[in-house]
């Protein structure tokens, strides 16, 4: 893979990001919905609710993205990033794009005063786990993660 540029995504990249985000959702067994992907990404950028890093090749083709949500750690009383989404297009896998995105995420976290980044991944996603650990991420062995779906009130 030739030169790769990592930048903070803007409204101009919503269409390219939506394609990647839709593929990311499909990777996790969600149905394809490009309209949903496009509106979701556009809203995050428009409302500055997340930081989205976009990897592009020299021709400007989107190769992957990483989405970070700012939040807080109550115990440390400091801001953190929740790295919720990381995806590299199948044609670009194996070229180190994921590592570049993770390193850019770390650089942005440091620059924005975050004390750490948290993420979760599927237990079966062994390639991602290996990549995280190779870059110094530490698997939490003390806490379980829980979630609960909440239906909106009528």
Description:
The chain has 154 residues and is α+β, with helices and mostly antiparallel strands. The chain has one domain: Gcn5-related N-acetyltransferase (GNAT) (Aminopeptidase), CATH 3.40.630. It has four helices and five strands, in the order βααβββαβα. Strands 1-2-3-4-5 form a five-stranded mixed sheet, with helices on both faces. The protein is globular, with a radius of gyration of 16 Å. The protein starts with a strand and ends in a 20-residue tail after the last helix. The mean pLDDT is 94.
Detail the poorly predicted runs.
none
Assigned CATH architecture = 3-Layer(aba) Sandwich
CATH-wise, what's the superfamily?
Gcn5-related N-acetyltransferase (GNAT)
Please give the largest β-sheet: 5 strands, mixed
With strands numbered from the N-terminus, the spatial order across the biggest sheet is: 1-2-3-4-5
What is the secondary structure topology, with strand pairs?
Blueprint: E1 4-8, H1 14-27, H2 34-46, E2 51-57, E3 62-73, E4 78-88, H3 97-111, E5 117-119, H4 126-134
Parallel strand pairs: 4-5
Antiparallel strand pairs: 1-2, 2-3, 3-4
Helix pairs in contact: 1-2
Briefly, what is this?
The protein is of the alpha+beta class and 154 residues long. Helices cover 33% and strands 25% of the residues.
List keywords for this structure.
single chain; 154 residues; alpha+beta; Aminopeptidase; 4 helices; 5 strands
């Amino acid at each position: 893979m030739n030169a790769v540029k990592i930048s903070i995504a803007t409204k101009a990249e919503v269409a390219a990001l939506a394609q990647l985000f839709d593929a990311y959702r499909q990777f996790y067994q969600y149905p394809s919905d490009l309209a949903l992907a496009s509106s979701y990404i556009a809203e995050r950028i428009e409302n500055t609710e997340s930081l989205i890093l976009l990897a592009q090749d020299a021709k400007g083709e989107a190769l992957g993205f990483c989405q970070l949500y700012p939040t807080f750690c109550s115990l440390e009383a400091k801001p953190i990033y929740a790295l919720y989404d990381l995806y590299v297009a199948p044609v670009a896998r194996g070229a180190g794009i994921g590592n570049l995105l993770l390193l850019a995420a770390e650089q942005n976290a440091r620059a924005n005063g975050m004390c750490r980044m948290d993420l979760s991944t599927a237990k079966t996603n062994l390639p991602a786990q290996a990549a995280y650990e190779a870059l110094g991420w530490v698997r939490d062995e003390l806490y379980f993660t829980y979630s609960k779906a909440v239906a909106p009130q009528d």
